[in-house]
Each structure stands twice: as structure tokens, then as C-alpha cells.
Amino acid sequence: MRVHVVSDVHGRADALARAGDGADALVCLGDLILFVDYADHSRGIFADLFGPERAAEFIGLRTAGRFDEARAMSARLWSTLEGDPRDHIEAAVRRQYAEIFRAMPEPAYLTYGNVDIPRLWPEFARPGHLVLDGTTAEIGGLTFGFVGGGLRTPYRTPYEIDDEEYARKVEAVGEVDVLCCHIPPAIPELLYDVVARRLERGSEATLEAIRRTQPRYALFGHVHQPLVSRTRVGRTECVNVGHFRGRGTPFALEW
Known about the structure:
Distance between the termini: 5 Å
CATH superfamily: Metallo-dependent phosphatases
Structural class: alpha/beta
Number of strands: 15
Oligomer: single chain
Order of helices and strands: EHEHHHHEHEEEEEHEHEEHEEEHE
CATH class: Alpha Beta
CATH architecture: 4-Layer Sandwich
Strand content: 15-25%
Radius of gyration: 18 Å
Number of domains: 1
Strand order of the largest sheet: 5-6-9-12-14-13
Number of helices: 10
Shape: globular
Helix content: 25-40%
């Protein structure tokens, strides 16, 4: 059995269309939308609406940890648009989702990332796309558990939830062979982004579940350029499957 795993697609529909080649199924760990591109300031919803120079300024403020200033700048720009800013964002997100889900191979098992908008997915998911969050699926005789979304941060991305709600989803998954989450377990070397030079948030609940239940694999994404991409916790191989927007190739899991 061979499963390809991707995370942090961020608009890479071209590569996503080929991500299932040679595999029995695709697993996607979320972050389908590209709002801002830290590498190419001309890409993403923010740049499409306000231009690359404004996007570069916005990214610079966020990178420097000046979140209040970034939000104030963003609010000023949104106020220049006609109508409700949320309508502009949702229209752009819908366009990206339409393209991404058209490219998504079938069968695919998906969960949400922190920048995703779960309520919109049913409009675009096709019959071969199974969306899971806080539940399990059997793939090739192994039980895969899925926990989507992210934890609260100063970035205030769309699908951030309280620690308690996240922990309940981890608990609901229970003992599995492969634990699939968008964000990593709370192990510092897995959380440090060497390009952004900051620690991202990880889940203590996920780490505790790994220690207690010892799945074969714990798979995740979220940290685009991690200090360490894989480590072991007991018998569990913890693997960051890679920044799919940057790499364009999936992680392959075989058994």
C-alpha cells in the first residue's frame, strides 16, 4: 500500500493535480488557501487586492511581531474597498477552493489547516474527497486519525481553536496507527522555523496522545522550514511531510 501525504498546499493546484500519481490514496493535512506569500509578495489574496508593495509591508510588520500595526494597516486597506471586506475575502477564497478541489486527486482524505474555512469545503469537495476532523478512517488496513485546524496565535488565522477544543478532538480520535494533524506535537525542534526564525505553536495534547498510544506514525505540516523535520517519540516516527507549496512533491508512506 502506498499513500501520498501533503500539507500546506497554499494554492499549488498545478502540483496537487499530480500529487496522487503512483499512490493508492492521497492524504491532505490542510492549508489549501494562499492569503499572503512570504516568499513571493506578488502572490496571494492580499496582493491581488492591494498590490505586492502593500503585501510586502504587511508581511514585514507581521514578521517583526508588530501584529497590532499589521492589523491597523490591513483595516485601513480593507476600508478602501466597496462593500463588506468579508465579501471580498470570501469571493477570493471561493475562487481558490474551486481550483484546488478540481485539482485534488481521488480518493483523498482531508483535514483542515489553520488558514482554511471549513464551512466552505462542502461546496467544493467531490465524491472521492473524505473530509475528517476528530475522527478516523481505515486505509489499507491501518487506522488513520485526523485532527484539523490550529491553536490560538497572534496571527488570528481563520481556523484557530481553543486548546481545550483541540484536545477533545485528539481524545476523540483515540488509538490509531497513523495520527494525522495539521500542526505538530509540542516538540521545540519540530516547531522552530529556521527561515522565519520563530517558534510556531504545537499541541501538548497531541504529544501526550503520542506518548500514551504510540501510533506508528504522527504526520503533520504547518511549519514550513522546520529545524528538524522528523524525530521519534518512543516507537512513533513523527514526520513533517513538507511545505507542499514550496516543494511540490508529496511525502510517501508505504506498508
